[in-house]
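User: structure tokens for this one?
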Amino acid sequence: MNRLHALLLVVAMPVLLALGACQQAAEPSKPTSAEPSAEAATQAPAAPTRPSKHYPIEDFIDTTGIGGASFSPDESRILFSSNRSGIWNAYTMPVAGGDWTPVTTSTTDNTYAEAWFPGDERKLVSRDQGGNELAHLYVIESAGGEKDLTPGEKLKANFLGFNHDGTAFYVATNERDEKFFDLYRYDAKSYRRERLYQNDEGYDLGPLSPDERWLALAKSRTTSDNNLFLYDREKKKTIALTPHEGNASYSAEDFAPDSSSLLYLSNEGSEFSRLRQYVIDGGKHEDLQSAPWDIVYARWSHDGKYRVVGINADGSTEVQVTETASGQPLAMPALPAGEIRDVTIARSEKEMAFYLNGDRQPNELYVLTLGQPEARRLTTSLSARIDPADLVDSRVVHFKSFDGMDIPNILWKPHQASADNKVPAIVLVHGGPGGQTTRAYNTIAQFLANNGYVILGTNNRGSSGYGKSFYTADDQKHGREPLWDCVEAKKYLQGLDYVDGERIGIMGGSYGGYMTLAALAFKPDEFRVGVDIFGVSNWLRTLESIPPYWESFREALYQEIGNPKTQRDMLVEISPVFHADRITRPLMVLQGKNDPRVILPESDDIVAAVRKNNVPVEYVVFDDEGHGFSKKKNQIEGYGKILAFLDKYLKGDGGAKKL
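Assistant:
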């Protein structure tokens, strides 16, 4: 996904949406009225009624979140992140399975594992302050002490990996100029550093070649159009790689281990991104791989024995591992239903860590000895309190919007929903604008489905994953055509015989929160209720208050949404806070106090304005969260209050007007 089109995505691990298991399905079939014969009924035991239990939110949040993977030098242990304690911390465990050993024990701010030092027991972790996204990089020494390698106020640091022999690592920070990121090289022993690239021109930094001569750079023109460059550190020269006409996006992915070529993605001349390489000696561009969907990432293993590619295929991620010498795909072991993601191949190229995720199975960490037939499952993440048979499988469904455009969606149907037991429904809108609702284990969707709500995760025009034309179809149209797609999503739900067509609400996080507010303000009679999770209410303020380190793509964002200097009237027209007097349906708003993307006044103002209408408004603010609710205690409170709100105002009457 183009990072520009994902500025208002939820960023904390994991809040509303995540990539999910690969299984396309048709629209759910309507129940048949046929009943089994009396003879059949006496010969076969009755199927268990699902769900067998309605689980409280505490049971869902008891599930363990887990992510990341880095092997120890001898590859006997693995470093990862988990919210097992209620706060994200770093842990290690044996690759053969066994007990977890905490690396950090924070009880306040989330700490995420970055990498194990290639030569010893030290680890790198990152941590921000209360969700403000100003992450610093820390080293956890072998004896357990902690050192901030990027000290400073209002500084944001990004770890970019170790060099090939493990004697140094790379970090990007905006300490010199808060608008742009410079590239630094840290000595792995002394932590002395040198600046390898001073970013005065506002480029987005890409990968650095293993010989440290070449640095890939990107420059944005719009959210769907950019260019790639190579900076030659030896000759102090910047080379344009992708001159073109029309809209095309490019993403630098990885240099070959011998620094001879650069892997990159491009949708130039096509709807979907394909994998290419630029051969530096001779300046030749070559196509390597394409698919009928976007290829979304590609990278080499340490010495180039394998190439790992991810494909965004109709709302699921397909991972392909290819053996370079033969060009043949690596045979993967037999696994439970789900989707492989986040592949990490060890430096020896003998071990591979990955996650398996399915509709009814959250991330599980596996390790595979390459060439062996079976992978080792290291974790059990789903709460023991939950029977996975009580959860539901999602489905890919489509409908035609008001102008005939095909809109893809992910549908979660409760077990208890039927033509004889119609249930309420929610249109769930992703962040972005250019995010994507995908197949996945989704905590909030499963929680609400278990409690009797149909969830339709809609991919309105402007969503990523469905081609360049679809992706750009929302540009400068926010509050209009993409919103009208959400209204059509409601109509689609009303056509399902197990949905109560008079009880349909809308909910979303970030840009999806904006769409929720827009729906209530601009289509006030369509949805019964709205749940806004840190959504934009005033585009003028949001665009004028973006974090300084977004400077490199500020103009591209303006071209996507609108320019507050030259298009103020249009931005006022599409900002719900200026039309809040039209909101007549119950509204719930949730907000992180430290959110740097959608700041607290965005929610304060819409809540105050709607309350003037004598409309039920519930407001929840978390003092220790940013753009996403990552702490278990806050998820329990927030998601629990969402269910109570929906039970009162959507499932129940709650004093709301009927449609």
